[in-house]
Amino acid sequence: MDEEEGGGYETRIPSQGLGERAARGAIVTVGGQVVRILIQMTGVVALARILSPRDYGLLAMVVAIVGVAEIFRDFGLSYAAVQARTLSAGQRSNLFWINTGLGASLTVVIIAGAPLIALIYGQPELRRIAMVLSFVFLFDGLATQYRADLNRNMRFGVLAATDVVSVMLAAALAVLLAVWGAGYWALVAQQLGQAVIGLMIVVGVSRWIPGKPSRHEPMRHLLRFGWHYVSAQLIQYVGSNADSFIIGTRFGARPLGLYNRGFQLLMAPLGQVRSPTTSVALPVLSRLRDDSVRHDRYVLRGQLALGYLLVLPIAFLAGAARPVIVLVLGDRWSGVVPIFRMLAVAGAVQTFSFACFWIYLSREITGQLVKLSYVETGIRIACLVIGSRWGVVGVATGYAVSAAIKWPFSLWFAARKTQCPVRAMVRDATRVTAMAVLCGAAGFVTCSVVPLAPLTQILLSACACVAAIAGAAALAPAVRRDVEDIVHTVQSVVRRKGKLAQ
């Protein structure tokens, strides 16, 4: 139990064995996210057959606006706590009260602004939806520093278990309410239930009681880091949610519901796998910021792992989109297919950008991250507005184009302020992209050749074709080295003999 004894609590993570701890944490984290995604997908399959596209569209309209409050609720202080070299008990308590106060304030602001949200979209139901959803920010504010401390101390297993349990119980609640005819309120209850359950678990396992706020603790560097981070996130949020706002205001709830299902089916699970990798990478890379060789080695290995484990499956799903969508969501959601394919392109490119994001945080160049955010947000909004001339699919295409433009910009901005292995990152990403194109083409061709077979048979045939192509590509020396490196990493963790930090 963490106790405050005259302000003597302090955390400092040693650098010995970071490689093994990071790799083990990555496996635990990604494994937990895979289980979480499977649970969510089960809920998606069940709810898609009960609820309508309009139900999803109404929730997406509210989230597109009030979701910005999540950035201010965190204020970047969770990452500030994780990357700090040392963190005293007083600083930790101060961060808790700041996050809690921000969460409570945002709840009040959203309740007061709920009528305006309903007026913007011309949907009266949005007023009550926004008012109920506002309490998510209060509960998340209370949980922020509990989760940050678990992250800082590399208790990734506890974080993974928390996410799995909260998602499972919230999904079960949503399905139950949907069966009872609750409509969009089932989706609202799912969001609220996940926040409450997650808070209860992290408080229970931490067994920490925050102390009183103290004005004598050095907080400026933590708040400065948080301000730079939240500034970048705020700008990025505008760009990330401009698509939902444009579709909701121009085309209505049902088209937004179709777009939202495509986005949630691909981008949401992808984000849930990628984001926790930052929880693993940041504490390690932050402690290696003075050792450029080891720091860059971790970044390159992380990008390769994300590429092979995420980009290749994304490419396959894009090629086999039609049977996947019909099998998962049902025939009435077939309009999601072209949207899903465009978003898959965006998701693949964004995955490569994620390793660059680690560099910004670990090297403490968040000010540069803010400047980058202005550029990429402007590019994205321009692409979305132009694409909207061709409807919802045009918006999805604009989203993909903006992601493709963003990646080289992010590398260039990072290289301006710090040394980073730009050439090696581009080389590795190009190699993974070539394999991804092969996987996507194999999935598309196979599904086109046998269109009249049962959906499961089509997908199994496509998987077999992709596996054969991947096996042939693995004969190439460069690809074989990549695969061997990833396999060696897994084996070293299982045997607890990994020496990746050397």
Describe, in short, the structure shown:
Keywords: Cell membrane, Membrane, Transmembrane, Transmembrane helix. One of its GO terms (cellular component) is plasma membrane. The chain contains 19 helices and two strands.
Give me the oligomer status. Answer: single chain
Helix % is over 70%
- What overall geometry do the principal axes of the alpha carbons give? globular
Find the structural class using helix and strand composition: mainly alpha
> How many helix segments?
19
Order of adjacent strands in the largest pleated sheet: 1-2
The unreliable regions are 1-16, 492-502
* Proportion of residues in β-strands: under 5%
Q: Compute the separation of the termini in Å.
A: 33 Å
Q: How many DSSP-defined strands?
A: 2
Domain count, please report it. Answer: 2
Pfam families: Polysacc_synt_3 (PF13440)
Subcellular location: Cell membrane
Organism: Allobranchiibius huperziae
Main location: membrane
Key terms:
502 residues; mainly alpha; 2 domains; two-stranded antiparallel ribbon; 1% strand; globular; disordered N terminus; disordered C terminus
What's the structural blueprint in terms of helices and strands?
Blueprint: E1 10-11, H1 18-48, H2 53-66, H3 68-74, H4 77-83, E2 87-88, H5 89-121, H6 125-133, H7 135-152, H8 156-179, H9 184-206, H10 220-251, H11 253-287, H12 292-319, H13 321-329, H14 336-362, H15 366-387, H16 391-417, H17 422-449, H18 455-473, H19 477-495
Antiparallel strand pairs: 1-2
Helix pairs in contact: 1-8, 1-11, 1-19, 2-6, 2-10, 2-11, 3-5, 3-7, 3-10, 4-7, 4-10, 5-6, 5-7, 7-9, 8-9, 10-11, 10-15, 10-16, 11-12, 11-14, 12-14, 12-17, 12-19, 13-18, 14-16, 15-16, 17-18
